[in-house]
Design goal:
By secondary structure, the protein is an alpha+beta fold. It has one domain. Strand 2 and strand 3 form a beta hairpin. The structure holds zinc ion.
């Protein structure tokens, strides 16, 4: 399975939500607050691993797989096969937010109304769009 031209957007949202995929669209929205928190308080490896895990998860949703548990298992398998059992990304794969329980301490339960689109995301597919 494959798809082209995914768009990544950042939005501040409640900290129990890492990212979401807009059903039927090519848009993935990631939680800006969480990304900033991890970037500012954790290692670069953890930050990159977290981003990979949530993007792989939402990517699988974007292929039309809606079942949450199935997506979690598939994300884990992809990371396991690519990085091995002991890699940070594999540890985050099944439940990325669960790796950072302190996120629940960030008192925020609002959705920001402004969005930041990440340019050059999924760039290799842009040539197909023209
Ligand atoms: Zn999900």
């Amino acid at each position: 399975m494959n798809r082209t031209g995914l768009n990544l957007i950042l939005q501040g949202m409640p900290s129990n939500l890492g990212a979401y995929h807009v059903l039927g669209s090519n848009i993935i929205v990631a939680n800006r607050y969480i990304l900033e928190y991890i970037k500012n308080t954790k290692s670069k490896e953890e930050y990159n691993s977290f981003i990979f895990a949530i993007l792989a998860h939402e990517y699988l949703h974007s292929l039309g797989i809606i079942d949450e548990n199935k997506v979690r298992k598939m994300t884990y398998k992809v990371c396991f096969d690519m990085f091995g059992k002991d890699h940070t990304t594999t540890k985050f794969a099944y439940n990325p937010l669960g790796a950072f329980p302190q996120l629940q301490m960030i008192s925020n339960n609002k959705f920001e109304t402004s969005f930041t689109q990440i340019k050059k995301f999924d760039d290799k597919n842009l040539s197909y769009i023209g």
